[in-house]
């Protein structure tokens, strides 16, 4: 297979897998994780900034996040941004740091989170399949331009399918791991 096409397909599939990992990091599992507040944007001196650019985010223990603002005057804005992000988290402000206790999840909420994880994984599978389709189109285009044989075309398409199967297997593995993590009590 053409190394350029192969590396391009591999890169795109890897990005799709990384995107799923990022989405999973934002799913609440009942454990403290820095990823829970990744999407929080804070109004700071007239501009909107990611939370990690105005405060240090630490995991104190399995159920507590600690946010230490670099500028203590921003503590109210950080607290407001967490409420506004609607993450279901209650920040506690002591004037110097913000503590967020992660409450235990109910069984119903766990099941909802598993459904969300499955939905996000299916979207990632569709993305991987679209990358496969684009790769096969590139190969067919190359066949017409470079006059590749039918045998070569089939070999290359089989290689793309192997890459697709491996990527989807990795997605499924990530989903299985995330489901276990969510359903743990």
Structure in words:
With 185 residues, the chain is an alpha+beta fold. Helix content is 58%, strand content 16%. It is built from four helices and six strands. The strands form two sheets. Strands 3-4-6-5 form a four-stranded antiparallel beta sheet, covered by helices on one side. It has a two-stranded antiparallel sheet with strand order 1-2. Strand 3 and strand 4 (64-69) form a beta hairpin. The relative contact order is 0.16. The model has no long low-confidence stretch (mean pLDDT 89).
Based on the model shown, name its key terms.
185 residues; four-stranded antiparallel beta sheet; 4 helices; two-stranded antiparallel sheet; 58% helix
Number of strands: 6
H/E series, N to C? Answer: HEEEEHEEHH
Strand order within the widest beta sheet: 3-4-6-5
Largest sheet: 4 strands, antiparallel
Mean residue pLDDT: 89
- End-to-end span in angstroms? 47 Å
Please bin the fraction of helical residues. Answer: 55-70%
- Report the C-alpha radius of gyration, rounded: 22 Å
Classify the beta-strand content into a percent band: 15-25%
Which class do the helix and strand fractions yield?
alpha+beta
Poorly predicted parts: none
Q: Based on Cα principal axes, name the global outline.
A: elongated
Question: How many helices does DSSP assign?
Answer: 4
């Amino acid at each position: 297979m053409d190394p350029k096409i192969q590396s391009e397909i591999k890169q795109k599939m890897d990005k799709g897998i990384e995107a799923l990992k990022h989405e999973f990091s934002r799913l609440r599992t009942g454990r403290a994780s820095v990823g829970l507040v990744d999407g929080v944007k804070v109004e700071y001196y007239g501009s909107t900034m990611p939370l990690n650019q105005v405060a240090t985010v630490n995991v104190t223990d399995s159920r507590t996040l600690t946010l230490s603002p670099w500028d203590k005057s921003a503590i109210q804005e950080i607290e407001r941004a967490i409420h506004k992000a609607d993450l279901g988290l209650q920040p506690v402000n002591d004037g110097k740091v913000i503590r967020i206790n992660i409450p235990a999840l109910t069984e119903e909420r766990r099941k909802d989170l598993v459904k969300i994880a499955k939905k996000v994984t299916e979207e990632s599978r569709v993305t991987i399949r679209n990358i496969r389709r684009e790769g096969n189109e590139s190969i067919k285009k190359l066949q017409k331009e470079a006059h590749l044989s039918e045998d070569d075309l089939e070999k290359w398409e089989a290689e793309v399918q192997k890459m697709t199967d491996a990527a989807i297997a990795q997605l499924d593995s990530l989903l299985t791991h995330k489901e276990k993590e969510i359903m743990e009590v």
